[in-house]
Every structure is written in C-alpha cells, then in structure tokens.
Amino acid sequence: MTAIILDGKELSAISEDTIKNKVDDLVKKGIEPTLATILVGNDPASETYVKMKRNTCTRVGMKSIAVELPESTTTDELLHTIHKLNDDKNIHGILLQHPVPSQIDERLCFDAIDIKKDVDGVTCLGFGNMSMGIDAYGSCTPAGIIRLIEHYKLDVKGLNAVVVGRSPILGKPMAMMLLNLHATVTICHSRTQNIETIIKNADLIVGAVGIPKFIKSDWIKKDAIVIDAGYHPEKCGDIDLDGIEDIASAYTPVPGGVGPMTINTLILQTLQSAEKQ
Ligand code: NAP
Question: Is residue 234 part of a domain?
C-alpha cells in the first residue's frame, strides 16, 4: 500500500478560499479582521516569517498592522506595545514573533497578550485551557498538524505516539493535543535515553527537534504515521524521509506538509477571533 501524503499545501489553499469568503462577509458587516504583528530586532529569518504571515493576510483580504521595534527594546517597552494592542478594539489577533532579543523576558511578554487575541496560541493560559479541553486557540504548528490529521481522517485513538521535542510552541502542545485525541503519548528530548528504541515502537512520530534528518528512516515502524515539523535550508526536515512512501501509512512531505498549515492556522484563528467580536 502506498502511503497517504498529508498535503498541507493543498489543504491550506482550500482553507484560504474559505477564509477569504468569511473575511468578505465580515467586511460587509463593517468588521475588518485585523492581525497585529510585532517584530523585535533584525533577525532575517523572523523578518521573512512575519512577511509571509502578512502576505497571507493580504491574500485573504485581512488587514495586518506591522509593529517593528528596535533590537534594543526592553521588556517594559514591549509590554507597553502589547497592552496598547490589547486595548485596541480594531485588532483581533496579536502575533509576537519568536524569538525576541535575549534582554527581553519573552514568557512575560507572551503572557501579556490578551487571551481573546492570542491567535498564535502562545500564552500559558491558552496552553492550560487547551490541555484541559477548554476552548482555546492552539499553538499554530501543532494545531495545524491536528487539522491535517483530522482532514485525512486518521484515527489516532490508542496509538503509541512519540513526539521528539518539548518546546513550548511545538513539542509540549503537540503532546497535549494528541493526548486529547486519546493517543498514548511519549515525549522525547535532549536527555532522553534510547530514542531509537522508543521511536521504533511508535505508531505515530512527530519530529520537532530542529536537527536535519535527526530521525532515521530505518527507525520508523512499518505503517506508522510520520509527521515532520522541521524545515531546514537544505530543504529537509527533522526526519529522513528517504523511501518513506514504502514504510509509512501516511506522512507529511517537506516542504509542503506542516509548514503551510502553520500560517494558515494563524490566519484562521484571527478570523475566528474577529467572528467572536
Ligand atoms: P526548539 O525550541 O529548539 O526545541 C527543540 C527540541 O528538541 C527541544 O525540546 C530539545 O530538547 C529537543 N532536542 C534537541 N536536540 C535533541 C536530541 N539530540 N535528541 C532529542 N531531542 C533533542 O525547536 P522548535 O521551535 O520546537 O522547532 C523544532 C523544529 O520544528 C525545527 O526544525 C523548526 O524549524 C521547526 N518548526 C517549524 C515550524 C513550521 O511552521 N513548520 C514552526 C516552528 C518550528 P531540550 O528541551 O531537552 O533542549
């Protein structure tokens, strides 16, 4: 059996059309869905990500407001900016691009975002609510992965799922989302021993390590579901996908799998926030 390709590029394009129609409807009612993006400093990769997010807003007819702050910004200055955006009733979503310069307390700033505008799913409160199964905007990359899983009707109930990585924006929320779907979840990280053995026993693997091809294709069990969140300049992910179509039952390609779903989920959640207004 050939593996199912979990095509994030296709799903995000379909979703964009739906979002665009809903944005048009809101605009006709006098509500202009608006995302505020905050970029602190001059990191070229962050600049590119923010630009891609704003371009997607433009494509669906959504307004985006770019706040650009200098590299020398302090925590207090960033908090002040966030509070102003929280108070602005014309802003429906706030994206604080990660990472911020090291002198800033990023966690404090994330948690200053009003929960109603936390469309990137970065606050502790949003994470807690999501974990408890209470309505919340999910962190966009894992939430986008769940949308792919649901779109392709993959039943993860009871599966032995292994998430490699435990970052606040990816590995941890991913694990909780899979747990909420009744998978049996193991989280691996840099201190985990015998990762290869753990992965060899997985029915579902999420690569969220940040190391190119860290997970080898011969560690992957026959018919496992393979989700690769990584993306590296050499156009590969965190999993060696060589020959994966003959091993996995379903997999996300790199590029064109998880990546497009992340931005699409941000835009979708901004729309949902505007609809709730
Ligand atoms: P991160 O914050 O650097 O976290 C990496 C995680 O991997 C950490 O939990 C770390 O463990 C673990 N790790 C590092 N080396 C390891 C090793 N040798 N063995 C086992 N675990 C190890 O990265 P991230 O932000 O979560 O991103 C992970 C990947 O996803 C990256 O490739 C990134 O480019 C990609 N990503 C993609 C999108 C998208 O839109 N497609 C969005 C975000 C991230 P410790 O906690 O013990 O340090």
Answer: yes
